[in-house]
Amino acid sequence: MPNSLTQLYKPAIAAILPAYNEAKTIGNVLEVLCRVDSLKEIIVVDDGSKDATADIVRTYTGRDGRVRLIQHETNWGKGQAIFTAWRNTQAPYLILLDSDLMNLTPAHIEALIAPVLTNKADMTLGLFLGGRIPTDFAHWASPWLTGQRGLRADILKYVLEEAATGYGFEVALTIAAKQNSYRTRIVPMKGVWHPPSEFHRGLRYGIRWRWHMYGNVLRAWYIATSQRYPKIRSIFPSIGKL
Predict the structure, then answer these.
(1) Which of 31, 36, 168, 228 ranks highest by number of CB atoms within 10 Å?
(2) In whole angstroms, what is the distance from residue 144 CA to residue 129 CA?
(3) Within the chain, what is the greatest distance between any pair of CA atoms?
């Protein structure tokens, strides 16, 4: 039975999942999304995975016509995966999610997009609460890094792709929203969490990946901010080369 949100607005909403080697977890997320009646499209961009991610997604494309799979031949990075999905949908509203979420429910999805649909915000930031202490702390300490968002699709046209490469997308998106005076709202996602990179990438590679991610974040901030404040480039000339 469609919920009241669907009945009142019936908007075109696309959920976007960038995925890289998420065969162990992406099925859990897709199970939840397929139970959300208000979604028009569920777009998975397999960003050059070397595991069975694409095969698992294909089992859902056969079960639910809203599920679409787009594949990158090589790993281009999370930002490019999201841009690819955005360019392949005309939905005016988007939900961005990580593909390794645990304890996700349809209610979380509806809560994430509701403030945007009711014009109380232009973008939401979904922050973990009461799932796992490490991921809870990381989200609330740096909310601009969350990969869980509900937003008006037109915000993405203001995001600098150069800044959004790799793992800099969330920072570039947050800065673009602020620079264009878009309203943002935090939405607690009670009980939701995801494994840290060290857990499913291996400790050694996971630590190296995390430092690479931080470098991408710093680079994204530098590029996106220096477009508005050019003097930053002269103060920190080497950051853009990270």
Answers:
(1) 168
(2) 15
(3) 58
CA–CA dist 238, 219 (Å, integer) = 9
**At 75, which CATH number?**
3.90.550.10
Contact predicate 39/14, CB 8 Å = yes
Q: Is residue 98 situated within a structural domain?
A: yes
Residue 45's closest CA among 65, 14, 69?
69
Residue whose structure tokens are 């595991």: 51
Q: Which two tokens stand for residue 41?
A: 């499209």
193 burial type by CB count under 10 A (0-12 exposed, 13-18 middle, 19+ buried):
buried
Rounded-to-integer distance, Cα 229 and Cα 175, Å:
12
Closest CA to 160 of 83, 214, 97: 83
- Of 32, 62, 230, 76, which Cα lies nearest the Cα of 168? 76
Q: Find tokens 């990179």 and name the residue.
A: 197
Residue 229 forms part of a structural domain? no
For residue 10, being part of any structural domain is answered with yes
Residue 209 forms part of a structural domain: no
User: Taking the C-alpha atoms of 108, 113, 118 and 124 in order, what is their torsion angle to the nearest 10 degrees?
Assistant: 100
Return the closest-CA partner of residue 55 out of 26, 84, 85: 26
Phi, psi of 13 (to 5 degrees): -120, 130
Q: What is the pLDDT of residues 33-70, one digit of tens each?
A: 999 999 999 999 999 999 999 999 999 999 999 999 99
pTM as predicted: 0.80
Upper half-sphere CA count for residue 59 (Cβ side, 13 Å): 10
Residue type present at position 222: Y
The pLDDT tens digits for 157-189 are 999 888 777 668 898 899 899 989 999 999 999
How many domains is the chain built from? Answer: 1
Structural domain of 181: 4-194
